[in-house]
Known about the structure:
The structure holds 2 protein chains of 2 kinds. By secondary structure, chain A is an alpha+beta fold. Chain A is built from 14 helices and 10 strands. In chain A, helix 12 crosses helix 13 (302-313). Chain B folds into 2 domains: 11-181 and 313-318, Jelly Rolls, CATH 2.60.120.280; 185-303, Homeodomain-like (Arc Repressor Mutant, subunit A), CATH 1.10.10. Chain B is globular.
Amino acid sequence: MENNKKIKFTDFFDTVKIMGQDLSSVDLDRVDMSHGHLGDAEFSFVNSKVLHPDDQLPFVTPPFYTTFFSVGFVLDAYGKIIVDKLPFNIKPGMLFVNKPGELQQLTWDVMNESYGILFTENFISKYAGISIYKTFPFLLFERQIPLKTSEAFQQELKKIVVLIVDELINDSPLKNQICANLLTRFLLKIKQEYWEGYMIHNSETKNSEMKNPDIVNDFFQNLEYHYDQLLKGKVQRTLYIKDYAEMQQLHENYLSSVLKEKTGKTGGQLIAEKTLSAAKILIEDPRLSLKEIAYMLGFSYLSYFSIFFKKHTGLSPVNYRKKSLR
Amino acid sequence: MKPVLTNLSKITDCLAFMNLPISRYNSENFSFIKLHEIGIKLPFQSPTFRPDFYNLFVIIDGCGTYYIGDKEIEISSNKIIISQPESFSSSYWTKIQKVYTISFRKSFLIQYFPAGIDTILELGGENMFSCDLTRERVKYFEQTCDEIYDIWISAMEYKDELIANLTLNLLFLTQLHQKRDFKIKLENEKNTTIVSAFRQNMENNFSHLIRGQDSLLMRTKEHSKLLNINENYLSKVISNCTGKTVNEWINEKLIDEIKYLLKHSDKSMKEIASLFAFNDLNYFCSYFKTQTLNAPSTLRKDFNKGEKNQTAVYNPQFINHQTFSK
């Protein structure tokens, strides 16, 4: 694999390419499993066994950042995954969860059965109305230690995976809703199995009780919480890196440098990304005018918002709305 | 024999009224009953309820008739029936080999899945929907029902979320069977909101009327005021989106309710008229006649004549209870 030194952010399609597959030659409208991959940039399913046939093993990806959440569900495979420089051995019965912005490198040595489910925050919030921050806080944890699954639990999860595959192949008019429903069930099962009793700790208890060393994690939780409030119209103001630093009683330069070191992105970038995903959700709601959205997200002029949006997506808000409503 | 007429609406009240040996897990928001396991004596005529919840019958093996509004739906094996809240309904069973009943409030689902489910609960603008299932689907429904039941009686912390998720899944699959409704709904989200708000208000108005909490049948003027929009605009949106005018909606609903009471209760014409805020019996009769081309008494007579052949046996359990009181 070349390009090994150059780490880059990958959206869904880049990632697929890294995984050893070029989707530009694949007709995405044709739905079948021959490429080991189903779905689109918002939600997709990967059958690693098909993707990595025996004669191509061992297989190593270059390090990459993702822009989506992923759940790897290993039934029978061996390999290694490096997440944020921490290596883990992949063994049968392992379940690993990754969030956007994590530096990953994946190695497969033996591949018999392993599946991956990739989804964006937007997907689950649009089709199931679920806020990841509120319902699945465990997805946002700073460091994900791979989970070990019992035989029975594997069967339960596999049942859902099979349903997801069926649904993606069937391609019914309610495909997205049903997939979001099944994905939610998948995550709920994980939540029930591993995180029973876990609550989002709010900032008061956090500061007084134990000092949480997880600066990045706290930052993400604060970020998520703030945007959750923003979308509900409960707060009007947008926050800058300085405000987030103050929440954790840190200096802004220190927070920035920690963020940069751990996520590879600056605080400003992370906030911009979050703003962008919030903007996308809002734009898809035709009840809101673009001006309202701009104000909600803390832009004082509509034109600032348009420039910002266009810079990051290549589409103006108006065009994006037209596209999404089509 | 007519079913006992009540205007009970809460799940718990309805179940308590029937005095059946049913699990303690039932709440006002959700209940799950395996009809075949609670020792119902056949043939069984349920009382008339006016539920504030949705009912989903999964009939694996059973026979009977379901009455809702003016409709009579044959209950047969491999079939699902789902009914909207705020409509008089009752059921008559001659065979219950394997029948699941899932009752839930809309708020129960909305609580966990706030987005994307408005349209699936519309049932295409009807007060009920039924369809036959393929053998495969029946099996899937049965498995899912069993799964819901297992979760329901478990002590899992996130069981409500899982139950809502699984129930929603069944609803999505049901929705796939009613294809014709899709185009209308997806056109414009803003209009969809108005349509569903209007329907909700209309139903609330009816239930208030029947419970004597209100004495005015709302028409376009009142509805538009309630929604803070112009009368003409409301009319336009409703007729464009649903193909029916506001008054058609109201009249149809009204006639539907009246017909149910004429057929399945012994209430006198005068009582029925006053229930729906008709001050004058003559006006009631002529209104009914213009809408249906039949006098109310003719409808009742005709129906009773046909009904004589059918012998229904009451469960003696109901006798002690008080019936309809306004």
